[in-house]
C-alpha cells in the first residue's frame, strides 16, 4: 500500500495512536482527515498542522456516523483510506451489576461504530484508486485481560469482523488491514483512573512507524511488538487442537 498522496480518514485522531498516525501521514504528503468528540482539541491540531482537516463526530451516535461519512465523501471525493481507530477502554468488575450506559458506550464505540462506518464507505472506496480499510484491534482480541472484559470482547469482535470483511471484499480492490497493537503509551483507559499500560508499553511514535511499515508491505493482519506473540501462540494452539 502506497502511503503518499492518499486521502485518509482516521477516526479518533485527537490523541494517542490516531493523532500520531495523522501527523506522520500528513508529513508524508497525504491528505489527512481526523475526527473526534473534542472540538477544541481538533481546532488545536488543525492550527498546529495546517492541512489536516477535522470533523467533530461522536462515533457512538449513528446519525453522526452517517453525517461524517457524507461530509467526508462530499468534501474529499478522493478519500480512499479509512482507518477505524477510535476506541475506549473501561475496567469492569463483573462481580457487580454492569453499568448499562458504560457497556453500551464501549460496545458501540469499539465495535458497532467501525462496522457501521465501514459499510457507509465501501461503495465510495470501491470507486477509488488504492482503496483500503485499516482496523485497529488489539493483542487483547487474542488473549483477554480479565479486568477489561468488555473491551477485550469488542476487540475480539473486531478481529472476527475484519476477517469477514477481508473475505467479502477479496474480489474488490479494497485492501483490508488489521493492525494488532501491544500496550502503547497513550491515554487509553485513563478515564477510569487506572494506568495499567505499564513501563514496557511501546512508545506511540515507534508504534506508528511499525504501522507504516506493515501497511507499506501489505501485511494484512499484523501483531506489533508483544502482540505478535499473542497472535502466534493462539494460532499455534488452534493448530494443535484441530490437527
Ligand atoms: N494504547 C494501547 O495500549 C492500545 C492497545 C491496543 C489497541 N489500542 C487501540 O488503539 C486505538 C486508539 O487508542 P489510543 O491508545 O490511541 O487511545 P486514546 O489516546 O485514548 O485515543 C482514543 C481516540 O479515540 C477517540 N474517541 C473515543 N471515543 C470516541 C467517540 N465516541 N467518538 C469519536 N472519537 C472517539 C478519542 O477522541 P475524543 O476523545 O476527542 O473523542 C481519541 O482520539 C483504540 O481503538 C484502542 O483500542 C490501543
UniProtKB/TrEMBL annotation:
The keyword Protein biosynthesis does not apply. InterPro entries: NAD(P)-bd_dom_sf (IPR036291), Sc_DH/Rdtase_CS (IPR020904), SDR_fam (IPR002347). Signal peptide: none annotated. It comes from the Bacteria. Keywords: Oxidoreductase. Pfam families: adh_short. The keyword Iron does not apply. Belongs to the short-chain dehydrogenases/reductases (SDR) family. This is SDR family NAD(P)-dependent oxidoreductase.
Amino acid at each position: 500500500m502506497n502511503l503518499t498522496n492518499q486521502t485518509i480518514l482516521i477516526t479518533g485522531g485527537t490523541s494517542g495512536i490516531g493523532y500520531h498516525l495523522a501527523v506522520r501521514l500528513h508529513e508524508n504528503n497525504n491528505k489527512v482527515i481526523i475526527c473526534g468528540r473534542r472540538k477544541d482539541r481538533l481546532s488545536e491540531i488543525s492550527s498546529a498542522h495546517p492541512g489536516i482537516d477535522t470533523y467533530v463526530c461522536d462515533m457512538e451516535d449513528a446519525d453522526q456516523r452517517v453525517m461524517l461519512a457524507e461530509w467526508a465523501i462530499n468534501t474529499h471525493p478522493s478519500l480512499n483510506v479509512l482507518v477505524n481507530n477510535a476506541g475506549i477502554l473501561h475496567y469492569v468488575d463483573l462481580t457487580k451489576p454492569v453499568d448499562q450506559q458504560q457497556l453500551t458506550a464501549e460496545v458501540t464505540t469499539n465495535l458497532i461504530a467501525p462496522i457501521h462506518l465501514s459499510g457507509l464507505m465501501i461503495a465510495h472506496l470501491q470507486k477509488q484508486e488504492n482503496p483500503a480499510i485499516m482496523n485497529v484491534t488489539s493483542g487483547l482480541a487474542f488473549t483477554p485481560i480479565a479486568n477489561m472484559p468488555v473491551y477485550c470482547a469488542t476487540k475480539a469482535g473486531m478481529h472476527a469482523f475484519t476477517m469477514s470483511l477481508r473475505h467479502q471484499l477479496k474480489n474488490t480492490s479494497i485492501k483490508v488491514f488489521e493492525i494488532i497493537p501491544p500496550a502503547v503509551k497513550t491515554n487509553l483507559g485513563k478515564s477510569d483512573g487506572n494506568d495499567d499500560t505499564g513501563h514496557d508499553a511501546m512508545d506511540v511514535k515507534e508504534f506508528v512507524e511499525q504501522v507504516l511499515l506493515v501497511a507499506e508491505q501489505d501485511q494484512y493482519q499484523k501483531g506489533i511488538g508483544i502482540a505478535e506473540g499473542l497472535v502466534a501462540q493462539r494460532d499455534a494452539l488452534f493448530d494443535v487442537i484441530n490437527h
